[in-house]
């Protein structure tokens, strides 16, 4: 797996910053499920984006510049390097639990509550139903809202929304595509490896 790190200089020596802006860095990591855009702040990994070809990555970087209030720099490269190291270990089968710091600022409310529950209590190689996850956060009947939270997860793979499935045995949806979800579940031994 290779990475392409943001090395582009900013357009001016002093980039525009809004009040509350936070430094951040980004890179694209080539993985078995395709290129992932990774963005990190000083607090931790803030975003993982699927299908990060050049065009998709450029759009994501533009959105993040707006959300984080300043263009990317190399200020958070150490956090990004740790995310790359751990994701590389995950995809090679040597890492089962992510221990890197996470920046939860791109999600809030119910979504954040559900995603934290998922990250902390649904381990590698297991799955949970949408309804069960709703029950775990004290919101019975909120299975659809859990599905919405999974779709809005800014940290897929690391916060493992691929481990959330339908209670009737179906695989459910996935923002990265169903083949990606199947591949991640196969990597973790939940589903058999595809034959071809």
Automatic annotation (TrEMBL):
<dbReference type="Pfam" id="PF01035">
    <property type="entry name" value="DNA_binding_1"/>
</dbReference>
<keyword id="KW-0808">Transferase</keyword>
<feature type="domain" description="Methylated-DNA-[protein]-cysteine S-methyltransferase DNA binding">
    <location>
        <begin position="110"/>
        <end position="190"/>
    </location>
</feature>
<keyword id="KW-0597">Phosphoprotein</keyword>
<keyword id="KW-0234">DNA repair</keyword>
<dbReference type="InterPro" id="IPR036631">
    <property type="entry name" value="MGMT_N_sf"/>
</dbReference>
<dbReference type="InterPro" id="IPR036388">
    <property type="entry name" value="WH-like_DNA-bd_sf"/>
</dbReference>
<keyword id="KW-0227">DNA damage</keyword>
<dbReference type="InterPro" id="IPR036217">
    <property type="entry name" value="MethylDNA_cys_MeTrfase_DNAb"/>
</dbReference>
<comment type="function">
    <text>Involved in the cellular defense against the biological effects of O6-methylguanine (O6-MeG) and O4-methylthymine (O4-MeT) in DNA. Repairs the methylated nucleobase in DNA by stoichiometrically transferring the methyl group to a cysteine residue in the enzyme. This is a suicide reaction: the enzyme is irreversibly inactivated.</text>
</comment>
<dbReference type="InterPro" id="IPR014048">
    <property type="entry name" value="MethylDNA_cys_MeTrfase_DNA-bd"/>
</dbReference>
<protein>
    <recommendedName>
        <fullName>Methylated-DNA--protein-cysteine methyltransferase</fullName>
        <ecNumber>2.1.1.63</ecNumber>
    </recommendedName>
</protein>
<dbReference type="InterPro" id="IPR023546">
    <property type="entry name" value="MGMT"/>
</dbReference>
<keyword id="KW-0479">Metal-binding</keyword>
<keyword id="KW-0963">Cytoplasm</keyword>
<feature type="region of interest" description="Disordered">
    <location>
        <begin position="1"/>
        <end position="21"/>
    </location>
</feature>
<keyword id="KW-0489">Methyltransferase</keyword>
<feature type="compositionally biased region" description="Polar residues">
    <location>
        <begin position="1"/>
        <end position="10"/>
    </location>
</feature>
<keyword id="KW-0862">Zinc</keyword>
<feature type="active site" description="Nucleophile; methyl group acceptor">
    <location>
        <position position="161"/>
    </location>
</feature>
<comment type="similarity">
    <text>Belongs to the MGMT family.</text>
</comment>
<dbReference type="InterPro" id="IPR001497">
    <property type="entry name" value="MethylDNA_cys_MeTrfase_AS"/>
</dbReference>
<dbReference type="Pfam" id="PF02870">
    <property type="entry name" value="Methyltransf_1N"/>
</dbReference>
<keyword id="KW-0238">DNA-binding</keyword>
<feature type="domain" description="Methylguanine DNA methyltransferase ribonuclease-like">
    <location>
        <begin position="26"/>
        <end position="103"/>
    </location>
</feature>
<dbReference type="InterPro" id="IPR008332">
    <property type="entry name" value="MethylG_MeTrfase_N"/>
</dbReference>
